[in-house]
Amino acid sequence: MTSWTSGYVAEIDYTHGYYREMSPLILQLCMLSKHQAHRVGRPLRYLELGFGQGLSLNIHAATSDGEFWGTDFNPTQAANAREIAAASGADLTVLDQSFAELAARDDLPEFDVIALHGIWSWISDANRRVIVDIARRRLAVGGLFYISYNTTPGWSAAMPLRHLMMLHLERASGEAQGLVPRIDAAVAFAQTVVDSNALYFRANPAVAERLKAIKGQNRQYLAHEFFNAEWHPMPFSEVADYLDAAKLSFAASANLLAHLDAIHLTAAQQQMLSAIAHPVLRESVRDYCENQQFRRDIFVKGARALPAAKQAELMRSQRFVLVVPEADVPLKVTGAAGEATLQADVYRPIIAALAQNDHQPKSVAELAAHASLKALQPTQLVQALIVLTGLAHVHPAQDEQAVAAAKAKADALNAHLMERAVFSGDVTFLASPVIAGGVPVGRLQQLFLRAIRRGRKAPQEWAVDIWPILEAQGQRLIKDGKPLASSVDNIAELTGMAQDFAAKRLAILTALQVVPQPGDAMTGTASGRLRQAA
């Protein structure tokens, strides 16, 4: 009898990651950057396939106006996603169905966005064809299809390393050990082969370096990334051929930094690519130039160029927000061609303008009219904002009406995640209705925000509020490499951390509407609904 897992790792849960490229606002900005038109539905209808722990899906559903669906055939992960969804009250259908079961449903709406992160590389060919069928029948004309996947040639040299580790996992370690010890043994065995002076690793020193990085990675991540029965890094051209059957055409990379040729390609490479007319061949050659190993692609059903005047109009109305302290923005960017320095006379005034008024969002039109930015050409301003967004220092923001509509759901979701942080540090993001996406907030910072919600006003009070939680769990803070023993020392260290948080991040999180008000409700909004369709 065939296992319901179909060879996919189910013994270990996937990590609780958040993937900003799947944000509707990021997808829209990528299309706008490349002068590509797409369907804009209100309300948005969004489907995520293989959502893992469901954090991205839940954050996007809680912070956007729309109807969201998602499926992940691992019932443990689906249960986690449903629990989070129930807290926010978002309009979200969470399923634990296979792709084939989902495709057979007769109640699926027509989606504006279908998104899948990573899973294309880890599933069977039969499942890939089901996904293509879902896109063909259920993605709206003008809709976006986001797909990220391991690709060649970047993975080509290291594929034998994965094969070696998988062989050891399957044939040299007993199942009774459990998956994590078997992964550890497989990685250690691969290192033994490296240390034996094997000619393959001598000929491919970068693969030996990759193994060093693998040894330090999270085992949950490794289990799903390397040790599924199905593992297929795929060239872009092959992915494009699959998706052509669903009438999908490549539109843009969801990695905004990939839109900047100058940091990835030499002048000769840029000239060579500009002479290639066919988009699939051009993208494939680009992957060779960059030795690309992971792609984040946006395909569209019905590609249409956006007229320049219309693109400029839409861009002028787009709002942006600085999501990090002004002083923490380095003027450096790294691409396949090496490190480049950003023009200080262009970027510093833009960053300073975005930081004004306590980081409140500002449209491109407002920035263009700013006294310190009037000398910039519109194209300079827009390109700088694209670069800063690609570096995750800046994020596109919703309009005020959309922010207001999402606020209650985002607050309810964040309250749930802050309570979860009392017992676990697995979720390190909170939801911002301003950017319709996730914001990195670690466990202790979530507990500081929880203390604020509980009415604690000053950093010292936050520290006093948090310490009993850590103490009851036998946890101590580390200072100078040693655990602090006394309550006094731990509270003092927590107070220092809280003061730093208050000075550097609190104003930004307030602008992003992540900071709770004292006494905020713990339950989901009455207007939202979690659908658990059969």
Describe the structure.
- With 534 residues, the protein is of the alpha/beta class.
- It is 47% helix and 15% strand.
- The strands form five sheets. An eight-stranded mixed β-sheet has the order 6-7-5-4-1-2-3-17. The chain has a three-stranded antiparallel β-sheet with strand order 11-8-12. A two-stranded antiparallel sheet has the order 9-10.
- Helix 3 packs across helix 18 and helix 7 runs antiparallel to helix 9.
- The radius of gyration is 24 Å and the shape is globular.
- The protein starts with 23 loop residues before the first helix and ends with a strand.
- About 3% of the residues have low confidence.
Gyration radius over CA: 24 Å
Through-space gap between termini: 24 Å
User: Which outline best applies?
Assistant: globular
- Estimated helix fraction: 40-55%
Q: What is the mean pLDDT?
A: 92
Structural class: alpha/beta
Give start-end ranges of low-pLDDT stretches. 6-12, 521-528
Strand content: 15-25%
Largest sheet: 8 strands, mixed
By DSSP (H or I, 4+ residues per run), the number of helices equals: 22
> Reading side by side through the largest sheet, how are the strands ordered?
6-7-5-4-1-2-3-17
Strand tally is 17
